[in-house]
From TrEMBL:
Species name: Propioniferax innocua
Gene3D superfamilies: P-loop containing nucleotide triphosphate hydrolases (3.40.50.300)
Subcellular locations according to the entry: Cell membrane
Broad class of where this protein is predominantly found: membrane
Coiled coil regions, renumbered to chain: none
Name this polypeptide is given: ABC-2 type transport system ATP-binding protein
Length: 228
């Protein structure tokens, strides 16, 4: 993303946002509530368009990359699903891809098989989260956007999701995630971009950014409350 600007309802949300997420790397987009992280992901996945600026995915315009099926998205929240059950949903999503992951092992890996009989609208928040994650991964994406992937997960599931995200990176997938958990960013991320007021104010590897203190201290000194 290069020099993206976006104004919504008269407020400038993205103010010259520039960053890159590279293949085989986990890139964390950090920032205070309202800084524009979800808006950025929505722009990178074709759900919104910046007013000006350039976004390329695999060197292509976003729409072409999305249409190619090479991009997976785990939104922060999805609309209320109907009475469909988790495995039915995953089989349906798998059917939309040319070479999907097998549903059963993915469901087992994320513990989805344990609530397979519950309709989606009755899932707990954490169960909905891991189902969203499975939906993002089912098509074997080469780039995946994860908007707060572990929010609301218990420590067991959180660790399992961390391991899975690490494996994706090791398999060459480009992972872009947002999180408010600094320990998550420190544990997972190769590259970190800290946003404030719709632009990137600090970038680097975790080790580069934390030479003088932990990531939370860097975050607190680089941003202000309500960074929108
Ligand atoms: N469709 C919209 N119309 C108007 N304003 C919007 C719209 N979508 C987002 N905003 C505003 O844009 C700003 C950035 O929102 P965004 O969801 O991108 O922030 P965020 O960094 O993801 O925040 P959080 O960490 O709380 O999830 C907020 O002030 C929000 O109210």
């Amino acid at each position: 993303m290069r020099d993206a600007h976006l104004t919504l309802d008269g407020t400038e949300i993205l103010r010259g946002l520039t960053f890159a997420a590279r293949p085989g790397r986990i890139t964390a987009l950090l920032g205070p509530n309202g800084a524009g992280k979800t808006t950025t992901i929505r722009c990178c996945t074709g759900l919104m368009s910046p007013d000006t600026g350039v976004i390329e995915v695999f060197g292509q315009p976003v729409a072409d990359a999305i249409a190619s099926g090479r991009v997976g998205v785990m939104p922060q929240a999805v609309g209320q699903w109907s009475g469909i059950r988790p495995l039915e949903l995953l089989h349906h999503l798998a059917g939309l891809h040319q070479n999907p992951l097998p549903v059963a092992p993915l469901a087992e890996r994320l513990g989805i098989d344990r609530f397979a009989r519950t309709t989606c609208r009755r899932l707990s928040g954490g169960q909905q989260q891991v189902l969203n994650l499975a939906g993002a991964l089912i098509g074997r994406p080469e780039m995946v956007h994860l908007d707060e992937p572990t929010t609301g997960l218990d420590p067991h599931l959180r660790r399992q999701v961390w391991a899975l995200i690490g494996e994706l990176r090791d398999a060459g997938v480009s992972v872009l995630l947002t999180t408010h958990a600094m320990d998550e960013a420190e544990h997972l991320a190769d590259d970190v971009h800290i946003m404030n007021h719709g632009r990137v104010v600090r970038s680097g590897s975790v080790s580069d950014l934390t030479t003088d203190g932990d990531l939370e201290s860097v975050f607190l000194t680089s941003t202000d409350a309500g960074g929108a």
